[in-house]
């Protein structure tokens, strides 16, 4: 599989808590521009913003970056990326990384890690990331998605529950430091082949996906493998609220390292 990869950044204008989020100013630039810069720093061969809003399309184009207008009726960013791949005429074996448009602090190395992990094997059409959980409260937090792997690094299951469940120490004792089997938090970045993307978008929502509200369970439901690369730590949170916006602005203005 080729090691060259492209990055597509889904970006919608609508947001319940932060309307127009992709265009909000962070340290003198629209947020979507910071995200594009992370992708370029990862050495992506092409970076495309996938949007359904003319304001985002125009702003990205004015800054010399590439954007594609997509169907406003898509139910997920994955569907939006699949449309970009069709518009661009990318080959089935082309690797595409899905980078969320509200992640201006994502380490560029993580983008590259996901793409290279997928390129380095031939069993899965999708790769994602995970990091070891160091805070015991995180294990029991349903907003932190956990993943359990097989011996070869492919996902056995994703869940909002505390998996794997340590029968000896849970729920009253939480000695994760001495656990022989680390708990892993899933990091929601994906690298896909275009062929996999098209298959995925043809599948209906699975029962597991509906119960856990985790889109990635659709893949396991249909019997396809998901490769998981373990990275050093969970990246800093993205931008969902005004508080997040202020936090990220402070980090970037303080000289947050954007090379990794």
TrEMBL record:
Give the chief site where it resides. Answer: cytoplasm
Location in the cell reads: Cytoplasm; Membrane
GO cellular component terms, semicolon-separated:
cytosol; membrane
Q: What class of enzyme is it?
A: transferase
Family named by the database record: Belongs to the KdsB family.
EC number(s) for this protein? 2.7.7.38
This protein's pathway: Nucleotide-sugar biosynthesis; CMP-3-deoxy-D-manno-octulosonate biosynthesis; CMP-3-deoxy-D-manno-octulosonate from 3-deoxy-D-manno-octulosonate and CTP: step 1/1
**Catalysed conversion reaction:** 3-deoxy-alpha-D-manno-oct-2-ulosonate + CTP = CMP-3-deoxy-beta-D-manno-octulosonate + diphosphate
* Protein name stated in the entry: 3-deoxy-manno-octulosonate cytidylyltransferase
User: Mind telling me which Pfam families this protein's record contains?
Assistant: CTP_transf_3
Output one GO MF annotation.
3-deoxy-manno-octulosonate cytidylyltransferase activity
Q: Which residues form a coiled coil?
A: none
């Amino acid at each position: 599989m080729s090691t060259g990869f492209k990055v597509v950044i889904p970006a919608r204008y609508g947001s319940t808590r932060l309307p127009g989020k992709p265009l909000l100013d962070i340290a003198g630039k629209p947020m979507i521009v910071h995200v594009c810069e992370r992708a370029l720093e990862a050495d992506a061969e092409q970076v495309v913003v996938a949007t359904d809003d003319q304001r985002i399309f125009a702003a990205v184009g004015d800054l010399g970056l590439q954007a594609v207008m997509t169907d406003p009726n898509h139910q997920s960013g994955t569907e939006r990326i699949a449309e970009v791949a069709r518009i661009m005429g990318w080959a089935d074996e082309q690797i595409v990384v899905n980078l969320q448009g509200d992640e201006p602090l994502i380490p560029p190395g993580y983008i590259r890690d996901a793409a290279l992990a997928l390129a380095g094997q031939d069993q899965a059409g999708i790769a994602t990331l995970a990091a070891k959980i160091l805070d015991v409260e995180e294990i029991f937090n349903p907003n932190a998605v956990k993943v359990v792997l097989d011996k070869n690094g492919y996902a056995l299951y994703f869940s909002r529950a505390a998996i794997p469940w340590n029968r000896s120490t849970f729920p009253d004792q939480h000695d994760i430091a001495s656990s022989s089997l680390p708990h892993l938090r899933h990091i929601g970045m994906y690298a896909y082949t275009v062929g996999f993307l098209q298959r995925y978008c043809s599948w209906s929502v699975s029962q597991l996906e509906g119960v856990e509200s985790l889109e990635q369970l659709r893949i396991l439901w249909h019997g396809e493998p998901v490769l998981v690369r373990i990275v050093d730590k969970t990246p800093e949170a993205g931008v969902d609220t005004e508080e997040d916006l202020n936090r990220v602005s402070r980090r970037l203005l303080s000289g947050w390292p954007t090379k990794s």
